[in-house]
């Protein structure tokens, strides 16, 4: 920690503390959305914010990706170490007794690291936690941010993997044909069960069944996060309410220029297509008629404004 206690790094002409700081020399905790890939998918705001920090929180891989912008700013710690594993084993392989110990250890780690963050902030240092993608959509950095005072936290927006996936598919997800809305969820959220250690899916709750029935009656587009871990069960649930010929696509490693790839199919065909694929986590599932034809043009031709304009021109 001693290496983190030097003078604050401030751009020339900037005040000692930004307006709104809880105390005159109190630092801020920044959740920095860095996009789904490296610096290529980060915003200028994110990159400039990284360069202004006094301490960075990031895993080693991400720190290497942004090394050009981090420079000699110290890495205080990896905020995710111990978040999804216990004594070198993944959470989904733990016994119930070990899982209970894991939760206790994770709580202890969060509290310890929160103490480090608070110490830095009280010394007038700005701390930046590097988040992949959108820090406000399935962003684990909220585990720390929500334990601080709201006025101590600043969120720097970042492009999510959903944006990268839609770009890879080159299709308008909304407006799209007759779609009335865009659903974004994780399977364990949609089913109402919550996240299980192995991310397996149970039978949807009665409320979830009601929602799924309504979804089956309304044209819509959908994006599912963390959908591959129990993909066979997810497709079974979806096919119980949606037509089997409904187009879908999986975008693996969306936004990663080297590893991104696209797999297209239907709700009927995709389980078989995924069966032999080794990737079981880093993929977004997108579902809807927007994957066929010209969805944007079709939707606008159905709108009164466009139809009227077309009529006036004829």
Automatic annotation (TrEMBL):
* Renumbered residue ranges of the record's region Disordered: 1-20
Q: Could you confirm whether the keyword Lyase appears in this record?
A: no
PANTHER family xrefs: S-ADENOSYL-L-METHIONINE-DEPENDENT UROPORPHYRINOGEN III METHYLTRANSFERASE, CHLOROPLASTIC, SIROHEME SYNTHASE-RELATED
- What range(s) does the Tetrapyrrole methylase domain occupy? 29-270
Tell me if Zinc is a UniProt keyword of this record. no
Q: Name one GO biological process term.
A: siroheme biosynthetic process
One GO MF annotation is:
uroporphyrin-III C-methyltransferase activity
- Gene3D superfamilies (alphabetical): Cobalt-precorrin-4 Transmethylase, Domain 1, Methyltransferase, Cobalt-precorrin-4 Transmethylase, Domain 2
This protein's UniProt keywords: Methyltransferase, Porphyrin biosynthesis, S-adenosyl-L-methionine, Transferase
Q: What is this protein called?
A: Cobalt-precorrin-4 C(11)-methyltransferase
């Amino acid at each position: 920690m001693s290496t983190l206690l030097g003078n604050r790094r401030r751009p020339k002409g900037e005040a000692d503390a930004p307006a709104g700081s809880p105390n005159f020399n109190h630092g801020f905790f920044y959740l920095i959305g860095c996009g789904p890939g490296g610096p290529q998918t980060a915003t200028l705001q994110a990159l400039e914010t990284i360069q202004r920090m006094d301490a960075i929180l990031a895993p080693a891989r991400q720190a290497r990706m942004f090394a050009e912008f981090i420079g000699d700013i110290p890495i205080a710690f990896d905020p995710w170490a111990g978040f999804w594993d216990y004594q070198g084993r993944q959470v989904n392989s733990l016994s119930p007794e070990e899982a209970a110990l894991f939760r206790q250890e994770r709580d202890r780690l969060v509290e310890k690291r929160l103490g480090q963050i608070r110490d830095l902030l009280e010394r007038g240092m700005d701390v930046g936690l590097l988040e992949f993608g959108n820090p406000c959509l399935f962003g684990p950095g909220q585990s720390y941010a929500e334990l601080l005072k709201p006025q101590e936290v600043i969120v720097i927006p970042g492009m999510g993997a959903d944006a990268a996936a839609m770009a890879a598919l080159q299709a308008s997800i909304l407006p799209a044909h007759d779609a009335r809305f865009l659903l974004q969820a994780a399977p364990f959220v949609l089913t109402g069960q919550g996240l299980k250690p192995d991310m397996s899916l149970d039978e949807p709750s009665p409320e979830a069944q009601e929602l799924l029935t309504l979804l089956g009656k309304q044209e819509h587009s959908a994006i599912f996060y963390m959908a591959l871990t129990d993909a066979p069960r997810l497709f079974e649930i979806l096919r119980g309410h949606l037509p089997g010929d409904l187009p879908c696509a999986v975008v693996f490693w969306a936004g990663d220029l080297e590893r991104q790839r696209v797999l297209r199919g239907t709700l009927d065909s995709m389980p078989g297509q995924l069966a032999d694929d080794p990737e079981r986590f880093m993929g977004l599932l997108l579902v809807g008629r927007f994957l066929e034809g010209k969805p944007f043009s079709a939707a606008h031709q159905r709108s009164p404004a466009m139809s009227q304009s077309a009529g006036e021109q004829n």
